[in-house]
Design brief:
With 124 residues, the protein is of the alpha+beta class. The chain has one domain: GMP Synthetase, Chain A, domain 3. Helices cover 54% and strands 18% of the residues. The protein contains four helices and three strands, in the order αββααβα. A hairpin with a 5-residue loop joins strand 1 and strand 2. The longest helix is centred in the first third of the chain and has 22 residues.
């Protein structure tokens, strides 16, 4: 039951932070293509790992994470205000590059298939 509550609270926090990024956090270092992929709560609901996907260069990603860390206090207060929790969880923003790594892997597979077809390697 406790795990289920942590997941529900994480889902609510994810929605709130996504909405805040769209409407209220106005830092130009946070690109429009920034998404909250997942929020993982500690079982006691005092800590939240917020996984972000940022579309952009390495510099843009770094600047976005700096901006998110600077906005943590504001975001945390808004989360506490919008979700009725006894204690506002500490937010820990983490860059999630799994989507980009998946795309790189898909591109490598496609490239390998094309090279194999170009060599006439249709042995499978």
């Amino acid at each position: 039951m406790r795990q289920n509550r942590a997941a529900r609270v994480g889902d609510e926090i994810q929605k709130v932070i996504s909405q805040l990024l769209l409407t209220e956090v106005k830092d130009p270092r946070i690109p429009m293509m920034t998404s909250v992929l997942e929020v993982r709560m500690s079982s006691d609901l005092t800590h939240a790992n917020v996984f972000l996907s940022v579309y952009g260069s390495e510099k843009e990603k770094r600047e976005c994470m700096e901006a998110m860390n600077r906005a943590t206090g504001f975001i945390r207060s808004q989360v506490a205000k919008r979700i009725k929790l006894r204690v506002a969880p500490e937010l820990h923003f983490k860059l999630d590059e799994s989507i980009e790594k998946s795309m790189e892997l898909i591109n490598l597979i496609d490239k390998t298939i094309k090279e194999d077809e170009a060599r006439g390697g249709n042995d499978a």
